[in-house]
Fold this protein.
Amino acid sequence: DQQVKQNSPSLSVQEGRISILNCDYTNSMFDYFLWYKKYPAEGPTFLISISSIKDKNEDGRFTVFLNKSAKHLSLHIVPSQPGDSAVYFCAAAQGGSEKLVFGKGTKLTVNP
Amino acid sequence: KAGVTQTPRYLIKTRGQQVTLSCSPISGHRSVSWYQQTPGQGLQFLFEYFSETQRNKGNFPGRFSGRQFSNSRSEMNVSTLELGDSALYLCASTLGVLETQYFGPGTRLLVL
């Protein structure tokens, strides 16, 4: 049973436009959410996180939105750049646990 | 500050053998987590160690084990290797609860 789902395996956008990556979760006990970016042959790199007490967190070009009632979060990248092309993973944790539950990832391609 | 390092980076083993992977966390980080990444299952949590004690455990068979040393370095061991153990094994370290987990580059294990 997948507790964290990224339903779009891939996404393609034009440089300069907005990229929106989506993530759904089923476990209402999750209270901390993160986004990681991963290039081939490298480990995941932390991008941005959000606690369940917030509904938005922004860091430069990256903004994460959390809709607790819908158990949905999204990552917005504005403007998208070719260097953003990578696989993006959504992850969730509960109760201060270090155990992260990951989605299966969305491959983002930003075309010049 | 040096990042998380993992050795070896690549490994080829045959079925039935055992393997030990090593992870050195970021200096000052006391929590080390291990994850397995496969194309079919994505990133899955194996276990987490803090101050030489296993604090969390994922749903993997007993063939997967780990330990942490007093300097926070960690090892994971897989005994009686199976073809399905072929994967990228990632290690992540963190300062503490609700702090960001930083990942190493991973060890790619191929079981023949």
